[in-house]
Amino acid sequence: xxxIPTPAPVIRMQGIKREYRMGGRHAKGDDAIVVRALxxxxxxxxxxxxxxxxxxxxxGKSTLMNILGCLDKPSAGTYTLDGIETSESDSDTFAxxxxxxxxxxxxxFNLLARTTALENVELPMFYRRREKGVKPYGTRERRERARAxxxxxxxxxxxxxxxxxxxxxxxQRVAIAxxxxxxxxxxxxxxxxGNLDSQMSLEIxxxxxxxxxxxxxxVMVTHEPEFAAYTKRIITLRDGTLVSDxxxxxxxxxRELARWKSDNSLLADGKIPxxxxxxxx
Length: 281
Description:
Strand order of the largest sheet: 6-7-8-3-9-10
Order of helices and strands: EEEHEEHEHHHEHEHEEH
């Protein structure tokens, strides 16, 4: 019988260490303080996974996110992203990886204030570098791809609005559209609900779940267990090491959003959810 080969992980980290030497460039011996942010971490994620990264302050979450996003390099170990070994990559390769392989979503949205939603989503395609044998996007194709991404996140009626004309949840949807427009290998989300209220947070988690069901690989850094519960897998860091890797609850954000709206509608009518009216059964 011919065996079916197992697909390579989108993300494969082996023995990742990140050390920072404090006390100045020339500090040596007892004068140098070495901070070991990551201590030989192994982590892999396959296509279509939805992983949350948790851990207390100082656990190494931010360091891991920076290395995952090719914003920093490890002191030791290897990081292969979609078949590209990144640890020894030069600045041009890093720029290519960040633009084409990773879709970033940040807590603070990071939208340009003086450009419309559509123009914000077009930005990654402007920065797309010329590759051998690959034709850059033309104006029409760039505009159509941006429109398609905004439709995918439910903002087809807000394309010409500026960030100041959008709610926080809508701004985050624009940021997600910008993250997916180049069809990256994975989406890296850093506390994506940190600046949102309860309803908008559920809407964004529901959107991530929809994208994941369509095959998008997502890694989300969060310190909130309630949001990690919407993912399929939860890894936890402590003191620069991976201390647990467990299956997530995979709670349905869309269903909980509907329940939240129903409960708040009852509260607006002066009713208490779960408590029958006077005289009721």
